[in-house]
Structures are given as structure tokens and as C-alpha cells.
Amino acid sequence: MRVIIGFFFSLVWALAESTYQTPLAAYLGLTGAQSDALERGYGDFNDFAAARQARLDQLSIAISYARAAAYPDLADIGRLYLEYEVILRDAVAHADAWHSTAVAILTAPQVAKLENIRRSYDLYDQINWAQTANLIGPVDGGLIATPPLFDQYNVYPTLNPYAAYQLQAYLGLSDTQIRTLVDILYPELIKASDIYSQIVDSEGKVGLELTKDAPDPITIGQLITGMDAAAAQPTAGRAQIREALLAQLTPAQRKLVAQLDEFLKGVNLVQPATCLALVAPQLNQTTVTASGAIAFNVNQVPRLDFGCGSY
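Given the sequence above, the corresponding C-alpha cells read:
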């Protein structure tokens, strides 16, 4: 089966600050010279893509009309598709070349950090559930346990099946370990639910107070500071809960958790790294069907331009 490969990025060029002031640059430790080189390449590819993007848009319209004609011109349709594919292949080749050039700008330690960003993309689900289960991430904020972690259709507390699968598959957790994690985390969810019910009740009281002809500032202040104090309670024992959870794991499993914790740092850097072609470009594949008709949607023209705002 032949594959027509379309390279796309659907964002707009808009750099608001220099690279070395951004999270990606800070994580990789980019120098000013490296930042400038990446920005130049980034702009050069956008310039290259602009004219080709305009032609793709024209071709998509032409293809649509040609296929809808009462008496389709087969040669014309074929010519349009061939030109479309040539443009896409050319864009992919340029994107791959820029990816190699961009990575070559980095030092070996920076490339190693870049690999963490790549792994963050590959392991997104595992990272997400490990953080939700309080195995990784900051210990000074957020809920210790949240409802999505648990199976809402099971009366007896148990993990969400998908979460359990991801954690067991990656960390090699036994059923007994999963059960122990639930026993530690579920009571924290109950506590958090009670606390947030109090917060919602206080918010309602603040709203009622504000509707009065003469609202009492002291009452409002007491309610708001009370909500702040309540919101801090669910995280008060987070470090201790984390310690209890990790104690249930083997040394090999704790090593994997530590790796996920490192990969977590790269989750928000995947997009800007991809925009700069530091992570290999993603490809959009359009295949020829068994009947020979190209599965092509003229309403979904691949975007060739890079552009990710401030990275």
C-alpha cells in the first residue's frame, strides 16, 4: 500500500521573548548563540513553507472541483494529486533536514535531556496516572487523590481499570500492590471530598453575603480565609502519603517511578520542542484504499508552517 506523507504543523509564528528565557531553553540550558541559531532555522523553514502552503490550499480546491465535475478529467485529477504529493514530500524532506540540523546545534548533555522530552511524549499516559496516584510530581500542591483514579462503577474502592493497566504494565505492579495503593489513597479522596464540599458551601455563603444591601466585610473575609485554609488541608500530608506509597514498591519499581518523575518535567516541553524540530516532526499519512481511490479529505489540508508562539 502506497503512502502519501503529509507534514503538518498548525500554529502561527509569534516569538514574544528570547529562547533562553523560556522553559524549554532553561531545561536544555541553551546559550544565546544556540537560541539564535534555532530561531533562524525556525524562521527559514516558515519562509520555505509559506509559498508551498498557499499552493496546497489552491490544489485542495482544484481537486475538490475536479472530482465533483460531471465529466471528471482523469488526467487533470492525476496531475493535481501528483503535484500535491510532490509538495508534501518536499516539505517532509526539508523538515527532516532541519530536524537533523537543529539537533546538531545541541551538546551531548542537551541531547540527553531532549531524549527525556521525547520519552515524555511516549509515556504520557503512564506519567499522567502515576502523578494522579501521587507517585510522582510536586508534594506541595494539588489533591493527594482525585476521582478519575478510581472506578466509579465499582462499589468496592478499586482503581480505574485503564489506570491500573498503565501502572501495572509499566511498573510491573502486582495485584496486591495495586490493592495496597488503593487502601492508602482512597481515604485521602474521601477527606478531600468532604473538604471541598465545605469550600463549595462557603462560596455560596460569600455569594449570599454579597447580595445583601449592606454586606459585612468581616464575614466575607472570614469565609474566604476559611476556604483558603480548607483548600490547603488535602496537601498537608502529601509527602507522608508519597513515602507510604513508594514503600510498597521494589527497588526496581522505584527506579522506574524516578524516571517517570524526570520525564514529567518534559511533558509541557513536547510542543515547543516539536515546533523547533528538536523532536522529529509528526507526519500525517494518507493512504490509497484497496479500490485504488485515494483517501483524501480536501477539507483537511496539512499545515506546513511551524509556529508555536513563545517557546
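The chain has two domains: 3-106+278-287, 128-264. Try to locate this feature in the C-alpha cell string yourself.
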